[in-house]
Amino acid sequence: MATLEEKLDKIRSPNLQSQKQTKVILSAVEETLKEQNTQPTPTGYFAALLALLNQSLGSGQVNNELTPSVVYLLDVVTPFAPQPLLRSKFTQILALLAPVLLLQDAEAPLIKPSIGCLESLLLAQDSAAWKLPTSEISPRRAVAGLLHLAVDHRPKVRKRAQDALKKVLQNPPPSPSTDHPAADLCAETAMKSLGEVASKAALSKKQKKPSAEHDPALIHALQLVKTVAVASNGWPSTNIEALCELLLGIAKTGNEHMTMAVFEIFEMIFEGMADEAASSKLPRLLEIISELRPSANDTQLLPPWIAILSRGYDVSAQMEPEDTFQKLPDLFSMVSEFMESSSHNIRISASECLISFMANCIPDQVIIEPSIYDEKVLEKIAKIAEDLLSVKYQAAWMETFNVLGAIFDALRWRANPMMLNVTRTVGELRGNDSFVGKKEADEVLGKATRAMGPESVLSVLPLNLVKPQKDQPGRAWMLPILRDYTANTNLQHFKTEFIPLSEAMFQRVLDNGDAAKTMEIKIYETLVHQTWSILPGYCDLPLDLAVAFDQAFAEILANLLYRQVDLRLDVCRALKTLVESNKAVASIEDEDNLLLKSRVSKEDAQNNLTYLGSFAGNLLAVLFNVYSQTLPQSRGPILQTINAYLSITPEQELVETFDRVSTMLASSLNEASGEKTKEKGQKAKEQMPSTAQTLMDLVITMSAYLPRQSFGPLFNIAALIIVKNEEPQLQKKAYKLIPRLAESETGKVALLERNAELQNLILSSAEKISAPARRDRLAAMAALIPFIPENALHFIPSVLSEVVICCKENNEKARTAAFELLVLMGQRLAEAKGQPIDISKVRHMAKDAAPVSASVEEYFTMVSAGLAGNTPHMISASITALTRVLYEFRKTVNQEVLSDLVQTMDLFLTSNNREIVKSVLGFVKVCVISLPTEMMLPRLPTMIPNLMVWAHEHKGHFKAKIRHIIERMVRRFGFEPVNKNCPEADRKLLTNIRKTKERSKRRKDAAKEAGEEEDQQNGKRRSRFESEYDEALYSSDESDASNDSDAEVLGKPRKAQKGGSTYIMEDEDEPLDLLDRKALASISSTKPGKLRKAGRTKAKTDLDGKLILGGDDDDNDDAMIIDTPGGGAGGEEGGVGAYVAALKSKDVGRRGRGGRLKFSNRRGKDDDDEMDVDEKDVSAIKTQISRGGRGGGASPRGRGFGRGGNMRGGSMRGGGGMRGGGGRSGRGGIANGRRGLGQERRHGPAFAGKVGKPKSPGRR
Fold it and tell me: Rounded distance, CA 1136 to CA 1147, Å?
């Protein structure tokens, strides 16, 4: 909380005009205190302000200029005044403030601080003062005033009064009672207010009058009740019965808002009773709610009453779990009666209440160690649940299934045997073909399986698959349920029940031999697969692992792995789950919760892991062999299983296994060196990897678990393979060793101890790296960087040039790894700031080179060295690397270094090499986005002209990149600085940017005025920006043109596209036939715009009839920019849209028989064959022609006139006129005296001084 001096300091330097009067009064008060030689203590301020308040209200009138400021200051000072002083001055202050609070036209700025003063005064009162009656000037009278203001129509006044009441009631004076002395007064007043408003609302509803005017008052009264309930830890005990009746009556009205408000009040009351001090009120409240039970058919009141009851017993179970559990059968019986209601809402509410009872009202101890009495309670609940499946409740069976699922979840293994009858009944219902609730029944049976175990469920619902009986149906439908829900059960049951079933089914498949598979045989195969798919569930923390998982069972699994390829995935999952489930239990801290969840203690789990470790050697041998026989795309699950068993293998056995694998790897490498490489054309997925690659995978997997004595041979293997650049796949795997070791503790120690050895290995193999292994090499360097000691920092500059070059790799993952490694190396040098770096140890450096000090600035110098490279590729890579490093360390690096760097890049913009400039553009963009404005503004006079040199380059998206950078500059630095430094010839681009924005705003404003929402019409996502341009310019994201590459350089993840990125273009009349061979032509990777209908447009012509393109109109300065949105009706017309429209319009030429072009000569109703020209222009053209102007016509399709100017679709006499005189896109010509395309030059008058008139259409 701020001190008094801090609060007064804010008043002394006001930010608002309205606070200046307060500042003046505070200054006056402080001057007065100074003159009187009084210390500026809270007491001094309080006395001076009280005198000032008395003076401002002395005449009985409120001084609108003085009083609000005085009361505001008094509100600030009062909480810091001594409490004895506040008690002594209570009567005087209340007498002064009461008239203010009772004024009808008092404004909120005056009333709110008055309430604050009252709050501070009331908090200071003792028990004796609270005993005074309301009729006197007492604290209770002040509370009555606050209660009146708490239902005020002004929101801020109402909120301030409610907050004051809450604080007062939550801070009672010292007394034996748990309730505040004013709690009863607040409760009675709040209830009275609520009752009056509720009765008015009910009366108006009876008279069928609109009760809208009562709703706000009712909501305000409910808010007051909620405030009192929260503040007084529930509700005063004496008034709780009347409140419940009143609230339930309001909930009965059916108004959703009121019902929700009532729920919130009950929620607050129950929350207030959740502490031990107020819990004594809870039994009485629950008793009252039970007595207010509505009619069984009351569809409006019964659901909220059930919900309140549910919440009440939830709180009761937290406070008194044992007593609440004993009441559970009676509650269950009472609520379950509502399940036979004809109302769906009542059934839903009842089922949710029963589910809540099961989830919250059964203590953990009852499940872990139940007494005989506890078991009887559970049996009663099970009997009620069984009754819910009788015909009487048939309408509620779907809701009943939810309740049964909750019972199984709550009772866990205690559900056996008391819930077996329920399980049998549900299973029989599920087996009926006409039963509609199969999905819900499956879920109940699944939860029963999870709770009681599959053995108990199958005892009442046998599968009947091996030897089916006539009176017992087969239940193959249960296999998927068992697969999904089995866990934490007896593994022995799988051996006795499902292995014989699998053998029987598989034998029937074998009996079929090589004959064609019938449907029956395929069903048997499916049953075998479904049977083994249950095994992972049995292996999820089994209760009898040491008994059931014996040598014979392990051999069965090994044979399956070798012989049944289709079952490998399930067997591997089962073996892996055995280890992982026990490891998870062994690492849990909370022992009690552990017993409840799994019935396997930490000690048992550790013993299980030790027992499995005895099988690990043999299982690993099997898994290694199976791994070597499996195609690469199917190896993942096997490798994960190998990893799990390596983690529990005894150390000695692990070392022996590693030695065997290492020996085999060495021999396979020797053999491979003498063989020729396989054909490269064969796909990797279709061929088995070499033995060396397979063994190397196993070595990498084992490396994380090896003891320290095995690291010597391990690093020797890596050193041997890393230099084999003729085998890229093997080289990749060797580099993966270092990141793998960094995952384990022993591996980290090894990396630290052998750091120098690994550094030399990395540096010596730089020349023999193959392209596919480059990413893994970078990952190995990244794993090594954190372990570099302070005296070996020269490793960073030694590999830096290689990392920089990798920033230009073709492989995206290699580039990303290079950028991450650049940042990592910079961070490492920043951590080692001040440590010496021995530059003489770096390759190609002088032996007597002086050491440099590690820092981020030195790192920038190292990376910048590449700018002096001999090739454009090296220079470009260095600039890209600098861009990433700059973005990462821009806040920590020295400003001088940044300034020099920007200046250097400015020079590189003048380069003639596109590759270099492309990288510089990325650098400039990062500078514009992230560097300080004061650093960038002085660079604009040179940077912008250098950028504009490339604005006319279309290759490599240069033009789009420059435009985007200029847009970002305008956003960051403003239009004027950019425009001032832009060359005169290139200012059209800036003008276009400004006008595009203005045009989009005008279009948006016009759409708003017309009451349209373009975003909704066009199906576009709604955005907080006015247009896509604004989003590109003002959002923090980069534009689409360079989004991916920039995000990659800056280390940001690429944005995943929402939804599909493919669109279907189809006609309005009929949908696209996806089976048609030509359907691919209608699939587009870009969102198709709304095609413009081809029609006539007004063409501007001069006196000679020549078309005028563009003009002096300011709005059309960029009319020739093809993709600028046009101003059509849809707002989506562009160059591409017009082109597509022209291709799809009805006037386009069609290929007929023989490939000849045909053109339609049909005219639509809206077609206008005459050009829109003024009468003056017509007369001028006639005059021009009569003077002997050149005749001829223009044919848009390049066909010259024949004799007499004949053309397809119409004829003209004299060869001058033409149908459709030029106004329409793609059709018609212009009778303007110019020759058509492809027409020979002709001389002489064409019409002998007359305008030719076309005849009716036809062919000659």
Answer: 18
Answer for the pair 1215, 1201: CB distance below 8 angstroms, yes or no. yes
Give the burial class of 706: count Cβ atoms within 10 A of its Cβ; 0-12 exposed, 13-18 middle, 19 or more buried: buried
Q: Is the dihedral of CA 315, 316, 320, 324 positive or negative?
A: negative
Measuring CA to CA, how many Å separate 146 from each of 118, 132, 161, 340?
9, 17, 6, 49
For residue 224, give the nearest of 320, 312, 151, 136 by alpha carbon: 151
Record the tokens describing residue 97, joined without a space.
């403030």
For residue 525, is it left (φ>0), alpha (ψ between -120 and 50) or beta?
alpha
Q: Please give the share of the chain, as a percent, with pLDDT higher than 70.
A: 76
Q: In this structure, which amino acid lies at residue 796?
A: I
Using CA atoms, how far apart are residues 250 and 842, in angstroms rounded to an integer? 84
The 3-state DSSP class for residue 1158 equals strand
Tokens read off for 387: 């009754």
Say how many CA atoms lie within 13 Å of 112 toward its Cβ.
13
For residues 336 and 380, the answer to whether their CB atoms sit within 8 Å is: no
Residue 654, token pair as written in the block: 């692990």
Cβ 70 vs Cβ 49: under 8 Å = yes
* Angstrom distances, CA of residue 1001 to CA of 530, 755, 998, 1037, 1117: 63, 62, 5, 21, 17
Q: Residues 794, 841: contact at Cβ < 8 Å?
A: yes
User: Does residue 379 contact residue 332 with C-beta atoms inside 8 Å?
Assistant: no
CA 495 to chain centre: 45
pLDDT at 1213 > cutoff 50: no
Q: How confident is the model at residue 845 (pLDDT cuts 50, 70, 90)?
A: confident
Q: How far is CA 279 from CA 152, 273, 553, in A?
A: 33, 5, 57
- Please give the pLDDT value at position 1257: 45
Please identify which residue in the block is written with the tokens 């789990």. 605
Q: Residue 403's closest CA among 357, 457, 342, 449?
A: 357
| Best CA proximity match to 910, nearest among 961, 967, 948, 884 | 948
* pLDDT score recorded for residue 1122: 36
In whole angstroms, what is the distance from residue 437 CA to residue 442 CA?
Answer: 9
Q: Is the pLDDT of residue 249 over 60?
A: yes
In the structure, what pLDDT confidence band is assigned to residue 1103 with cuts at 50, 70 and 90? low
Q: Which stretches within 1086-1221 are classed as H helix? A: 1135-1144, 1175-1186
User: SS3 string of 586-603?
Assistant: HCCCCHHHHHHHHCCCHH
- Tallying the residues shown for the chain, one arrives at 1260
Amino acid at 724: K
Taking residues 526-531, what's their average pLDDT? 94
How far is residue 654's CA from residue 705's CA, in Å, rounded to a whole number?
A: 8
229: Cβ contacts below 8 Å, ≥ 6 apart: 235, 265, 268, 269, 272
Query: What's this model's pTM, rounded to 2 decimal places?
Result: 0.68
DSSP H or E run through 1151: strand 1150-1151
878 pLDDT above the threshold of 60? yes
Cα dihedral: 198, 204, 205, 208 (round 10):
180
Instruction: Return the pLDDT at 607.
Output: 93
DSSP state of 684: G
Under the banding of pLDDT at 50, 70 and 90, the label for residue 349 is very high
Pairwise CA distance, residues 965 & 1038, whole Å: 10
C-alpha–C-alpha distance, residues 1116 and 1110, integer Å: 7
Which pLDDT score is estimated for 676?
Answer: 46
Tokens of 737: 């060793």
